[in-house]
Amino acid sequence: MHTSISDGTYTPEEMLSMVTEAGMDIFSITDHDSIKASGIIPGLLKEDSPVFIPGAEFSCRDENGKYHILGYSYDPDSAPMRKLVSTGHGMRMTKLDSRLRFLKQTFGITFPEKEVIALRAMDNPGKPHLGNLMVRYGYASSKEEAITEFLNKMKSSSDYIRPETAIESILAGGGIPVLAHPAYGSGDELILGDEMEERLTRLCGFGLMGVEAFYSGFTKKIRDEMLDFADRFDLYVTAGSDCHGKNKLIEIGDTGLDEVDEIPSRLREFLGDATQRSGRK
Amino acid sequence: MKIELKGRIDSNNAAAVEKELLDQLSAGGAQDVEIDADELEYISSAGLRVILRIRKNYPTMKIVNVSSEVYEILEMTGFTEMMSVEKAYRRVSIEGCEEIGRGANGVVYRIDQDNVVKVYFDAGGLEDIQHERELTKLALILGLPTAISYDVVKVGDSYGSVFELLNARSFSKILATEPEKMDWCVKEYVDMLKRIHSIEVPEGKLPDAREIAIDWVDYVYPLMPEDKAKKLRALIEEIPKDNHMIHGDYHTKNVELCNDEVLLIDMDTLSMGHPIIELACIFNAFIGYSEYDHDEILSFQGFDHETAVRFFYKVMSEYLGTTCQTKINEVVDKARVIGYTRMYRRSHRRNLMATEKGKAEAEQWMSELLELLDRTDTLLYSLNELDIEAEADNLTEVQTFVEECLAKTDCSPKAMMQINVAVEEIFVNIASYAYAPDKGRAVVRVEVSGDPVCVTITFIDHGIPYDPLQRQDPDVTKPAEDREIGGLGIFLTRKIMDDLSYEYADGKNILTLKKNLEEGE
């Protein structure tokens, strides 16, 4: 799930109390390209708090497509992780600058200086943030319109984190790299069958250790296919709700896990490994 | 409640679409959610997630009118397994198409050389289509040649079922355009009818035609004199239960010649029951329905009343296996009892009596029905029994009837001739003396039993008690001029047949003749 550090609506503090309220035993926060929550949450944990696993979700690309790669149980202070985050952040800032430039040059859209400063201060300002701003200043009637009619007109930059960079950095930072919502690619695709097989073969070659087979947006059929892939590639299985607070209508803890009678062994093994790694630090 | 999805749903607008849907849903407050995807062009995984989330709150949600592209995505991702997803139907126009059939639930049009579409009357026709598909499947499994629908389409606001009928020509069309093929049509039509009636229907698979007929009677019951209504109900109730198949709408538009194969279409009225109910519906289709206004048949079937009557009686003769007109009429009259009941009910139910013509034809049907009820004691018929006016003029009919009953046996020409002589002696005797000077009826029953093959012919009349066997055999040794008049007939009969017996019971003379057909061969 995501906090207000990336594109969620709840702060890490609020998230913790909601997780506690919901009676969950274990949880992780996987903000986009940010490991800030992993620094904040441990300080807030009490004796009876749920177990926390540090997490993050990195947007990656290569010639073959886009990927969201989760990193769990890394050491937040490790050099490789810090470098990965700062590279990501740097790219986002570069991208923000080129988007602002594009809006200005193509459509003559500009924002007051204070808004630009606020954008830069954010951990990872993206299209939704710019879209909201365009609505506020009357350039578009909705965030969706702003994105489709303006922001998407810009050719994307060739600057991105490659999946192997993310996977290798997470591993080097002592973490477990996992492919997020595999069947949905970077979020809006549908990758199944041979295409998925090809993807996993490649990513496993880089050291991928798990797949998010339980995901709030998966049907039973997709979930079963992902579990099947986990078996074939001998991967950990993880469960994620992708809860974004009020930005998406996903209930906290809705991972699809309640639909199975017992927790699959590959998920149990992941939890064991993940808690052990986090406990070490 | 119904919600429409339009255009594309992807990560750009998924959140907005979701919000809009939820607003509509919470405003509607309904539990049964139906998403109409008629105008949905594309859905990405972000859109799928929206649907998934809505379904979590509305588990009975279903999606209808899904294009094949979207359906493919829903199928691939398992949505079709977890919720009801109905494909959008191809749209077909029937403008200018030839009407080739009309059933209880819809009209069949030819859309091109090889395909026909059955358009259901009811706008909610999907259930009817499902129902008919199941019936058609059952008919195929049970051995009837028929066409199975391969596609469901939208025709205007109704639904249609598409069938492939290669080079098909309905029997109506053949009768209308190639009158010389009438006898061929009769034969094929009856072969198919017999095939239908020979099929035993597994318990509970089809409705009971008798129950349906009882419903017809119950409807007209209060509309006719009570004594007649009571009699009508008793007649129908007497029809035994029967598990053989009945088509229910067996007319020549529903029989198609397709690439030299005869196919049956329109299965929505399949039931099981006694064939007399089928014959009633056939009578209605060719005669009853257009009995008042002969032009009706021309506009419905494409051939005229005269052709319809000729075809109907030829069919009855072929089906009953007799050319004996008395026998055919007897069965037709029974069919008419049920047929008119149904026609009269139809007039009332469809409120057709509001017009002068509708009123006149309904009155005609009712008066025919009342007249028939006066002289009908049973709706059952037996193909080996002839009930006929005992008149010498009817001898040929009786003889023909007996011959036809024996046609399937290995009766030698000699034996047949002998039997004919015996039948003549006995029948003419009854015709001449049993009711003299009045008139009455006689029943002739022919039974064939096996090993050795033996025929039993029974003559029954209600005339004055008379035992012909008591009569002394005439002294045939006397010279002709000295012999008594009469008595020779029974003498001959004794000689020809192997056994004769007489009994008088319930006011009836019952004379039984037996002959062993294998004797001496």
Question: What features would you describe in this structure?
Answer:
- The complex is a heterodimer of chains A (281) and B (521).
- Chain A is an alpha/beta fold.
- Chain A has one domain (12-86, 159-280): TIM Barrel, CATH 3.20.20.
- In chain A, 46% of the residues lie in helices and 14% in strands.
- Chain A has helices at 12-21, 36-44, 79-107, 113-121, 127-136, 143-150, 163-172, 193-206, 220-233, 265-280, and strands spanning 26-29, 51-62, 65-72, 176-179, 210-215, 236-240.
- In chain A, strand 2 (51-62) and strand 3 (65-72) form a beta hairpin.
- Chain A is globular and about 55 Å long.
- The mean pLDDT of chain A is 90.
- Chain B has four domains: 2-88, STAS domain (Transcription Regulator spoIIAA); 98-164, 2-Layer Sandwich (Phosphorylase Kinase, domain 1), CATH 3.30.200.20; 174-179 and 196-248 and 269-374, no CATH class; 385-516, Heat Shock Protein 90.
- Chain B is 44% helix and 21% strand.
- Chain B contains 17 helices and 20 strands.
- In chain B, strands 5-9-10-8-7-6 form a six-stranded mixed β-sheet. A five-stranded antiparallel β-sheet of chain B has the order 16-17-18-20-19. Chain B has a four-stranded parallel β-sheet with strand order 1-2-3-4.
- In chain B, a hairpin with a 3-residue loop joins strand 6 (98-102) and strand 7.
- In chain B, helix 10 (275-286) crosses helix 13 and helix 13 (325-349) packs across helix 14 (356-374).
- The model of chain B has no long low-confidence stretch (mean pLDDT 89).
